[in-house]
């Protein structure tokens, strides 16, 4: 009986230290928008207890664009809705971003859908 209990405790200790209890990667900070065609593009991401706050500035063909929003993080998946506060004429004014954090914690990649029913890829690279 003691041997079985000892083996059970040893097995539990082994698994708890071998990837079963991965540390959550901190996403707070400045991210560069790496989508084609944008310039001077940066995002600021803040997370607290799974709630994500997102701010995004970019320039497209000399026009300024600003959006911000809130959402939720579950593991390495992040979903948030945005409202555009400084629009570019003809662009959408709301949308949803669905992103996945890379294993190394240095990129966020996924898709957007806007209130004009357009979808596409979206990606960010960690700056700091």
Brief account:
By secondary structure, the protein is mostly beta strands. It contains 1 helix and 8 strands. Strands 1-2-3-4-5-6-7-8 form an 8-stranded antiparallel β-barrel.
Written account of the structure:
The protein is mainly beta and 128 residues long. The chain has one helix and eight strands. The chain has one helix spanning 2-16, and strands spanning 29-33, 39-48, 51-60, 63-74, 77-86, 94-101, 107-114, 119-126. Strands 1-2-3-4-5-6-7-8 form an eight-stranded antiparallel barrel. It starts with a helix and ends with a strand.
Mean pLDDT: 88
Strand order of the largest sheet: 1-2-3-4-5-6-7-8
Q: Report the sheet-strand fraction.
A: over 45%
String of helices and strands: HEEEEEEEE
Tell how many strands the DSSP assignment holds: 8
- Shape annotation: elongated
- Which sheet architecture does the biggest sheet show? 8 strands, antiparallel, barrel
What are the low-pLDDT stretches, counting only 5+ consecutive residues below 50? 16-21
Radius of gyration (Å):
20 Å
Measured between the Cα atoms of the first and last residue, the distance is: 53 Å
Please count the helical segments. 1
How helical, in percent, are the residues?
10-25%
Q: Give the helix/strand class.
A: mainly beta
